[in-house]
Design brief:
binds zinc ion, binds NADP nicotinamide-adenine-dinucleotide phosphate, alpha/beta, 7-stranded mixed β-sheet, 12 helices, Rossmann fold, Quinone Oxidoreductase, Chain A, domain 1, 6-stranded parallel β-sheet
């Protein structure tokens, strides 16, 4: 066991603050990682504030982790000290259900173990995420990072990247396909970059008029202000696929109307409150579908990281110190993220040393 500095929420209503956690001594299959950077996902905020009603406190969020291997267990085959690695949203799964066998541990039928918020481990403990100085993870859930530099901007690929890559691939984003991305936040901006790199015609939907130029710079062929009915009307019945990343409940009909016959809108945003029920006629008239998607499996996460390294794709980030996390959450709630906060974990190490 090692005492590890971290930042935790102690209850739903309290801001995050310094907290010490225990990390296990690396076992035979474990990789010990010194955390360099951790991205800030809106799911961290939903969890810290118990917006999904399942938070176990103390809660140490963070599932966009990039760091350096410091030690490996004796049976570890694929990593060695000094390697640059990533950890995303999962640190374990059952390994024997159909989903795990298919490499889709994210859909483990016995429930995967989240990088934070458990569920509880065999020893009864919670799991603690990347808002901490180090982590110990089974090598099966450790990703190889081949980007040569800009590692802080690689961190968000571990959740925002894979959560958009997986549905874009599943629903065939590519040349000749018109793909919509709803919301230009952490997930949305990765969705725009990835759909563009896959060769699709990309249309960004945003509620923020001041993000139009950025949307185009990031790879959108067109940007639509989703609150403007006239702009929306120009796209009725034209989309093959829409990826909806919005973190708040909203009217889905406005987007369903834009799908072609047999088009699908995939929801990845996971708001605290349910969306108003969509109108059934919008679905049945054109055999449209609403779907969902949850992060991606480990194999696909490695594929996404390699795709991004090959295409020179990283996240657009704003680096923060650990102590500024609560301010970052407030800005995230105002859709004021350009386009992912990433914590420089040196700031936590310095803070812990000074304390
Ligand atoms: P984020 O950075 O806060 O981005 C969300 C974006 O949604 C905002 O920037 C804003 O974009 C738009 N938005 C916010 N409030 C809105 C409203 N009331 N109406 C319309 N648009 C609104 O969040 P994120 O980290 O990308 O996460 C997005 C959601 O995905 C969260 O709910 C998160 O928990 C969830 N998530 C799901 C998975 C999964 O596996 N399914 C994985 C990770 C995260 P504009 O300013 O452009 O409108
Ligand atoms: Zn996330």
């Amino acid at each position: 066991m090692s005492h590890t500095p971290a930042y935790a929420a102690q209850s739903a209503g309290k801001p995050l603050g310094p907290h010490t956690i225990e990390r296990r001594t690396p076992g035979a299959h474990d990789v010990a990682i010194d955390i360099k950077f951790c991205g800030v996902c809106h799911s961290d905020l939903h969890t810290a504030r118990n917006e999904w009603g399942n938070t176990r406190y103390p809660s140490v969020p963070g599932h966009e982790i990039v760091g350096t291997v410091t030690a490996v267990g004796k049976n570890v085959k694929h990593f060695k000290a000094g390697d640059t690695v990533g950890v995303g949203c999962m640190v374990d799964s059952c390994g024997h259900c159909d989903s795990c066998k298919a490499g889709e541990e994210n859909y483990c039928e016995n429930g995967f173990t989240g990088t934070y918020n458990g569920p509880a481990q065999a020893d009864g403990g919670n799991t603690y995420g990347g808002y901490s100085s180090n982590v110990v993870v089974d090598e099966k859930f450790v990703l190889r990072i081949t980007h040569k530099d800009d590692l802080a901007a690689v961190a968000p690929l571990l959740c925002a990247g894979i959560t958009t890559y997986s549905p874009l691939r599943h629903w065939g984003a590519g040349p000749g396909r018109k793909v919509g991305i709803v919301g230009l936040g952490g997930l949305g901006h990765m969705g725009v970059k990835l759909a563009h790199a896959m060769g699709a015609h990309v249309v960004l939907f945003t509620t923020s008029p001041n993000k139009v130029a950025d949307g185009k710079r990031l790879g959108a062929d067109e940007v639509v202000i989703s609150k403007d009915a006239d702009q929306m009307a120009q796209h009725v019945g034209s989309f093959d696929f829409i990826l909806n990343t919005v973190a708040a409940s909203h009217n889905l009909d406005a987007f369903l109307n834009l799908l072609k016959r047999d088009g699908t809108m995939c929801l990845v945003g996971a708001p605290e409150h349910p969306h108003p029920s969509p109108t059934v006629f919008n679905l049945i008239m054109k055999r449209r579908a609403i779907a969902g998607s949850l992060i991606g499996g480990i194999r696909e996460t490695q594929e996404m990281l390699d795709f991004c390294a090959e295409h020179g794709i990283v996240s657009d980030i704003e680096m923060i110190a650990m102590r500024d996390i609560n301010k970052a959450y407030e800005r995230m709630l105002k859709s004021d993220v350009k386009y992912r906060f990433v914590i420089d974990m040196q700031s936590l190490k310095d803070e812990a040393k000074a304390a």
